[in-house]
Amino acid sequence: MFTRRDFLKRSSLVALGSSMPAFLGRTAAWAQNSERPGARDTILVVVQLTGGNDGLNTVIPFTDDNYARLRPTLRQPREQIHRITDAIGLHPAMNGLKQVLDDNSLCVVQGVGYPNPSQSHFRSMDIWQAASTSRELNEGWVGKALRHVPAASSFHLANQNEAAPLALTGSPVRVPSITSLQDFQLRLEASGSADRRAQQGIIESAANPTSNQSSSLLDFVQRTAVNTYASSRRLQEIGRTYEPRVPYPASGLANHLRLAAQLIDGGLGARLFYVSIDGFDTHAGQAGTHTNLLREVSDAISAFYRDLAARGHRDRILIMTFSEFGRRARENGSRGTDHGSAAPMFLVGGRVRTGLVGAHPSLTELEDGNLRHHTDFRQVYAAILDRWLGVPSRQVLGQAFEPADVFRQA
Amino acid sequence: MPDTPQAIDPRWAWERYRPTDAAPWDIKRVGHLYRRAAFGASWQELEAALRDGPERTIDNLLRGRADRDADELWTLLSRGTSQANNGEQLPALWLYRMLQSPHPLREKMTLFWHNHFATSNAKVRNAGYMIGQYELSRRHALGSFRTLLQEMSHDPAMMVWLDTTQSRRGQPNENYARELMELFSLGINNIRRPAERNYTEQDIREAARAFTGWSLQNGQAVFRENEHDDGEKNVLGQRGRWQSRDIVRICLEQEATSFFIVRKLFRFLVSETVPATAELLTPLARQFRESDYDFAALVERVLRSNLFFSAQVHRTRIKAPVDFALGIVRGLEGHLEDANPQHRLGTTALASALDGLGQKLFYPPSVAGWDGGRAWLNGQTFLLRQNLALALTSTTDDRFGRRTDPAARVRRHHRGTDAAQVDFFVRLFLQNDVPASARTRITDYMKNAASRSYPAFWTSEDAADHRTRALAHMVLCLPEFQLD
Amino acid sequence: MRWLFSLTACVILLVPPLSARAGDSARDPVRLIPAQVELVAKLNRPRDLLETLTKHEAVKGLMKLEFLSGYFDGTNSRRFLQLVTYLEKQLGHDREDLLDRLAGRGAAFGLELNEGKPKVLLVLGARDEKTLAKFLDLTRGLIDQELERQEQHVKFTRGERSGCVFWHIGKEVFLAQLGADLVVTNKEKLLHDAIDIHKGNDSASISKLASFEASQKHRPDQSLVWLWLDLQRVRAIPSVKTVFDSLTPDPQILVLVGGLFDVVKRSDYVCASISQDGPSFHARIALPQGREGMSKAAVMFLPDDRNGSLPMLQPPRAISCTSYYLDLGKFWDHRREILNAKQADNLEGIEKKSAPFLGGVKIGTLLKQAGKYHRIVYAEQDKSPYKIKPATPIGAFALVLDMRDPAFAKSMNSILRGAALVGGIQFGLRLVEEKQGEHTLVTYYFPEDKRFDADVNNIRFNFCPCFTHVGDQFVISSTLELGRDLIDLLEKENRGDTSPATSRTHIYAKGVADNVRKAEGALLTQFVLSQGLSAKSARQQVRDLADLVERLGQLQFGLEYGANDFRFDIRWLMERK
What we know:
Chain A has about 400 residues and is an alpha/beta fold. Chain A has helices spanning about 5-15, 30-35, 65-70, 95-100, 120-130, 140-145, 195-205, 215-240, 250-265, 285-310, 375-390, 395; strands at about 45-50, 60, 80-85, 90, 105-115, 155, 175-180, 270-280, 315-325, 345-350, 355, 375.
């Protein structure tokens, strides 16, 4: 639970910051944080793979004979696997991430999980999102992190009718769920362009202060209005003229990420994004579906990263993927896999330590038929919180976790 | 409205307001009263209040009207919601009551208490409990604060929210004791002597022991002797084998409590910008204490006061999302059956919109409630407010349809000409608090719009209605409308 | 440009033609659709469809409901009607007449599925060329005006090909009048092809495509609307192919839908159509492959004869009944072929282990004693034997199993009694042997004096499970009342009255209506909060809604495998007044 101390601290911050409210901008508090290590205006994009991604078929230990034994029908042909090292490689469909790997921007953290893993979708997803294994989970790690960077604006890139995830709960200001740039548009009911311009003109000009007013509150409202309309115009402009430096594939995830790219490039201070892609619960007939999904994820992330890198944001961006659990080592009788536990996480960005972090879990020493984890996912969160966002991980996670070694030395 | 930092005479501030030439009973004051003591007003209500004068209008607001049908409807709806344990329906449920209530001041003060004893269904997960807590607050919203505070300790929703049910002898849970002192009664710092603290950590620990032994059975609070720590406790300088009632009593005996509550009420009813100094609040705090925490009398004194109707506090709050949305709906008579022969405005979609604006009733972000004030407005929520205003006035939004159609209202109140319509909306929504330049620009828009081209299959009535709706929307987008 | 399409589509679809004579193929608007499209749909009788939509009893009933009629009174609907009025005035005919003149021969639609933006083609078969020409000009004018008002700086420009005039906006929209047909499309090549076909080059038309022609019998002219999809080409689309190829259903699922999978894989096309018969409707989805050529695994689960399913059981207050064919005995016999070795071993292991719990009966034996025909019935409860009322009322359901071997009854008897014995300890079930005629229902009651913490809402008082057998039918029911009703029905039924459909479901509107009435509380709150109705009005709405639902009659679903085709029928039998 959010302590009273935090509340009091925050209210004073709001009071300080309120003298210059920017649309998605910076306040005094944020400036304070900039001295802390790693707290530049870095950006984090969390990509949730919903359903339980089959890690064993995503990051593949292709030289291990057990792989072929455990996955008689689902194993990937060795010559098509994209090698990361001589023993571990990526699923053939992940051309995009292979490109990112070649660009020294892909970090694969292997064997990530948590003790006493739950195989329930809901419970395990809650654990990952709340970064806690307590019985009652009411707040999310991203939400709590936002309390420490209150000026950072964040967005939930939502699918149609998708509810806000637990991960974002607990933030001081509600994280907006957006589906397109339309959500940032001042809507008008106009009979034509001339009418629209007239209406917009009146609304925007009303936001300008008149000569003899001296109400600070009205001032505040007007400044908020001016900033809002200006940002809205800028975003509509971006929406119209944004030329991706790299073609985005035509998929749901790519559309969401392109929206994120537009917001980032708009220079509006957007720092945190959360997006999810569903469909990974492949109990039967996994081959085709999983291939399509991995391709979608890989191509979308790759296009997004390269687009932003080409615009000079390479070192500011970090994309993280996770899933609520991996899948069982052995495939089941329906050419699919059942719920498992440990799985890999991908980190994409200009400052990550390229390659593998941690060894691949053993395929012979299984726990209940599942791979054993060696890295607690909260260690990865700790690294991201401390070293990337400049937020004290101990306060967000509730206890100290040794941060995983996923970033290059500065 | 000038922001002059002059000192305010506390004696004058709380004396009864009587209309004078310098401070006449005009539409601005009527609007102000309805915005603060209710959720905005329709045209009839504004005109009637103007005729009735301040005394009678405030009397009516304080008393409300009895309405058996409304009460029966409430029973029906709330029972349905709690039986189905439909937590997501709670915001719409209360919004509906706020909109239709014959006693809006009571609902408004219940909202004040909801933000004070902020409890979220996200943890409680029991619609029945939340409704119970709402009804408790509402019963005493214009009653005794002492009773409210005493009963709130054993309200089921509160017990779940602050873990009172987990508090046992030997393992007292400090949550409730802490919030009771910090947020519900004393406050951390003394308002009269800011360097002083009102209580210590030790006080909290001792008080926590007094709250042990309570649990819930079948939705009622029950006391179990054998789980209660009945030893002697030393709380705020008083020793005794205190139980929960005693702790509440002790907190109420502190002068700090009266100031704390009064200051909160000041911010809610009077102003967010005028400094709530101890000096200014002293007369109210004293009255509050001496009346044994009669909250109704306190509210009445504030509403009838000079300061309340002064220029210094006029438009010195930012509208909360509820105020913003309901102000528009009431202004456009969406809540009146005779204005909408089919049916009045439903509140499910509105509740959802308010969630986007940051105020989901029954789901405050933390036990400290909603920050309010400037925190309501940022780029995202500002835009959402303007777009919500459009959705309500355009009649092309499926969620709201034609129930808040400005064109229909204008016809109802016989405003034919452009100038008459501009006057109508500016007076209805803003009580003329509009700079001349904005008014001119809007009037020019109406003139130019009439000569624009419209699609060939639109009738001239269509085109006129369209202009009227655009007019209403633009008025609602003026920055002044965000000020309460 | 989307609004542009909506405007155009609105303008086109608003016109209801007079009763259309079946268009002869030489003038059938479908002929103008080029062969490269994968999906074709046609509104044979737009006029009838519109009359249905406006005059059908069910629709009129719906419109009376306040909570829905609000949607149709919106500003957008009003503007739409104004547009219609405007067109009537400009073209000099009222809407019924206009509909016939502009689309009397039907409206056809073609869709080309690309990776990316789909390409469409719309053809209106008009009866009055002159009015069509005026309509086209008028529409162009309106659209040009709107584009100008939106300052889009584009308008319709004229083009020509093979002596045919067409109008286009860039490469986005193309409009042309070809004789008495109006063509609208968003792909230039489709327009060119349509023009060529119009000029006489029939070979490019879809109507000459082999698989399209072959589907003629599934696209009756008498239908209101039909649809044809080229499965062969759709299956070749890469992303579809990936999924399709790797899609092998679970063996367990195979037993239920194996036939369907097999047929879909082998069919060149699929057709769907909707026809009207008085107030009733019939929709059919057809595939041109059937039993012949089916794989062994799939055909195993279809009956050898025309007895697809046993007659339906409709007890009083029935909500639904499903009757289907499923030969579990065959499944057991062929278990080694259907399941893989490990699963089969597992199953046999389970059989051995469970035998003692099943009163010595082995699963395999049980499955073979069971028959091939099963029925599931779901009905509302009327009188409950309990005094305590559950918080959430649940209807009664029953499973009626066919018995190949009368020993099945004995086996089931011992199993169920055994289970109840175990349950009895937990729940304190009380066994009573009730009588219905000459049949005995072994019934279990929950005790009303015991509290049960896991079920605070008293859900268990929805049930008093019982079982019995009537001739060769074994009945397991969740309530005694339904058990009795089924005994009566089973005694009287003519078992030979089977249907060739292997799976059928009937839903009875009266049962659903009763459910609506029971849910009054929840619906009331919904109506009041979301629509702002008064309590009285909301109550009336619930009653009106329930009455409306009740008048809807029956909804019937049926699956049938012919020798050379497959049919899925949906029938809505509205009661004739």
